[in-house]
Amino acid sequence: MTSTQKTTAVPALDWNVNALDLDAYLRRIGVSADSVSARNLAALHEAHVRSIPFENVDVLLGRPPSLELPDLTAKLVHSRRGGYCFEHGLLFAAALERLGYGVTRCVGRVGFTRPEMPETHLVLLVDVGAERFLADVGFGSGLLRPLPLADGANTEYGGWPFRLRRDGRYWLLEAPTGDPGDPGDGWRVEHGFDETPKRPVDYEVANHYVATHANSPFTRRLIVQRRDHGVSRKLLGRHYLVEYTDGRQAESTVVTPDELGDVLRSLDIVVEGADLARLREVYAGE
């Protein structure tokens, strides 16, 4: 009798996590290495979101962001810069794996209910013992802390309500519409995803679309977002918007090209020299 040994068709993936300067990353977000736990995962997630900006400066400068970990470390850790979802997510995933967490890299679809929207958002599923969490550090107006991957999981942490809903194979992250006249149940889908693991090349393809395609929102205008407890600061094109969760009226101002460098610096983004000059030119044409 002979036996046939089955082998998996899924290749081993090398995410090059050892290229991350973990000590520098932890200093950047202001936390120390600690044991694997749900509590420590929450602290890492919150510290990352509050420390590293969401921004698309490189895209407007005509430079699609590199997703190589040494480049991510140089930009988001060693410089006063930020990035968008692929940059944040891959950096955070590497840090988590170096710290001993189990991480599955997945992809989501922003505008999930619209049939024309592509899958262009990186999300992480993080295993802590028998529990699995959604970690979403690269969604500029998203979670401060992870959500348990469970139907109906919800949070109002930091004043920002979210809930997670299961719909067949998909998980839907939802936020309140804020519209009293909403004919639905008062919630909108921010993005949807499933638990299929992705490969580095999947993010390279999506990153190329996001950074170069005319239909990508990131090629059309400057987008910077910072979220903290009770306050959100955004620079969306020419408009600087500050929103509060305590009922105060939102504040909106128009930013001129001459003011751009100082406003970016106030958002912890430093762009200088020729890059700032070019960014002002692009910004003036928006």
UniProtKB/TrEMBL annotation:
<dbReference type="InterPro" id="IPR038765">
    <property type="entry name" value="Papain-like_cys_pep_sf"/>
</dbReference>
<dbReference type="Pfam" id="PF00797">
    <property type="entry name" value="Acetyltransf_2"/>
</dbReference>
<dbReference type="GO" id="GO:0016407">
    <property type="term" value="F:acetyltransferase activity"/>
</dbReference>
<comment type="similarity">
    <text>Belongs to the arylamine N-acetyltransferase family.</text>
</comment>
<protein>
    <submittedName>
        <fullName>Arylamine N-acetyltransferase</fullName>
    </submittedName>
</protein>
<dbReference type="InterPro" id="IPR001447">
    <property type="entry name" value="Arylamine_N-AcTrfase"/>
</dbReference>
